[in-house]
Amino acid sequence: MPRRSTRDPTARARTAEAVSFADHFSGFSAAYAAFRPRYPDELFQFLAREAPARNEVWDAGTGTGQAAIGLARHFARVIATDASAQQIEHATPDPHVSYRVAPAEASGLEPASVDLVTAAQALHWFDRPRFWAEARRVLRPRGVVAVWTYTMFEIATAIDEIVRHFYSAVVGPYWPPERRITEQRYQTIEFPFSEFTAPDFVIEQHMTLDDVAGYIRTWSATRGFVERQRHDPVDPLIAELTPLWGSPQEPRLARWPVAMRVGRI
Asked: Radius of gyration of the chain from Cα atoms?
């Protein structure tokens, strides 16, 4: 039998009270699915050890399922929601993942129904007080909340300097203000749970120069630049990186440090 995910056709109806959201990704869902990095399995092993059981997880702001698929290797069932129908349509199928269109602030889940609530590279788009309240509502006793973000990727010093300049000086003015808390590694936000320390996780993934270009084009600031300036700023960036990289198809190791806040209700 082919591996298929479950997409709940009634999920939208159950979220009539859904809040509005800033949709930065729907038009680029296929690229998002193709080029966004995948989290290390050690991260999901840690969450599985800390959760009171390994039955059900809610992954809020799932996007195209990058975290949901990792969680599905360790939990019996993952309910993965996103406010964007296009993101859900492009989500990676898995028999243990049920994808639904729903905002993070109004999941439609039953009270005290999950062991773990996660938000991977998504919290900065949420109405946090409402999301925290929703997480408390759906978690079982001793349930765990884990939210994480990753910072700028690192490949080699000369390459990193050029990409950082692009990030801050070229597309920097087009970053949505919500994005600021990711640069602060979520350390400046309120976290109203009984917090404990997470290990230091790092995403490691081999990328070609074409992959780098595809990934940077998924940045909300890059798309904001294109919308305003009517041209693609990634082309000159790649031209500048090519002499340092070599063949565009040569893979190089990229590393993204992960910053996590985790706690219990």
From this structure: 18
